[in-house]
Amino acid sequence: xxxxxxxxxxxxxxxxxxxxxxxxxxxxxxxxxxxxxxxxxxxxxxxxxxxxxxxxxxxxxxxxxxxxxxxxxxxxxxxxxxxxxxxxxxxxxxxxxxxxxxxxxxxxxxxxxxxxxxxxxxxxxxxxxxxxxxxxxxxxxxxxxxxxxxxxxxxxxxxxxxxxxxxxxxxxxxxxxxxxxxxxxxxxxxxxxxxxxxxxxxxxxxxxxxxxxxxxxxxxxxxxxxxxxxxxxxxxxxxxxxxxxxxxxxxxxxxxxxxxxxxxxxxxxxxxxxxxxxxxxxxxxxxxxxxxxxxxxxxxxxxxxxxxxxxxxxxxxxxxxxxxxxxxxxxxxxxxxxxxxxxxxxxxxxxxxxxxxxxxxxxxxxxxxxxxxxxxxxxx
Length: 380
Fold this sequence. Notes:
It is a single chain. With about 375 residues, this protein is an alpha+beta fold. The protein is about 40% helix and about 10% strand. The strands form three sheets. Strands 1, 2, 3, 5, 8, 9 and 10 form a seven-stranded mixed sheet that branches. It has a two-stranded antiparallel sheet with strand order 4-11. The chain has a two-stranded antiparallel ribbon with strand order 6-7. The radius of gyration is 21 Å and the shape is globular. The termini are far apart.
């Protein structure tokens, strides 16, 4: 990843603050990987937008500044690593992005996503039933890896055995002829094939991307949501006692535990963001995880406050690139928490929570690397 930063030259530097020794401005530091939210708080004290010499990039920390960049497709491009991420919806710009988005939106309406609720519940309940027979279970291997992948395969209409290949291979290596053979008559891919709204090359890449993105972000959120609740025993117990509050809690957990911490943009031309002049060609990291805990927007930002008033969190982005499958993602999170909470042993607070660290990918620059986590199952 580091080799890409040489492409951008920044003409303005910000003085290093008093936080420099304790909280160095480096998104690759091991200290930041271990304690990201402490670093976000310390950095924000120096301003809403900062320049990091170590990363040759501008870092956007505050909510309003993050929204302004996410919505500004005139000054900021999502095609950061072209051509590596070409033909992908999330990393294309208008007018190409507009064409692709308009073609796909009818297939991702809220009504169509709600209709998948029975599928989500069926798969989640089947997994939970298996877990209930055990004394302990692995969060990733036994549940979080399985649930979103199975749902994505049913949504897209792709054979699961074939689809598993595209969780490890880059989407640019998708072969349409192989992909077509694995598509069932029922599902999103078959519908798109019939309409002809996208080309076959676009369709295979988009399908592989949707499969990978839906699976990785949902699995990470399930892991992080469980961790967030177990580290907050009062919230854990409240949701066990009041499952009707889980839906509101999911939005709070998405705000608190965003599976993707930052999104990348590159400046098309000189732009002003929160009083900082960002030069053309500069790399911009929009730290949505930091923006989601902006104390000027969210009272008690580090707590779960169900039904809080305030702006919408940015876990699904904002503007033209707002996540098409956001409602489905929330349904998966809701089902995971609803079916797993009754199974967890609330009398064992000494759960070993492994250390988290960040992993960086070319299209989603800051994502969690999740170690396996074993939890005890309540015994009847």
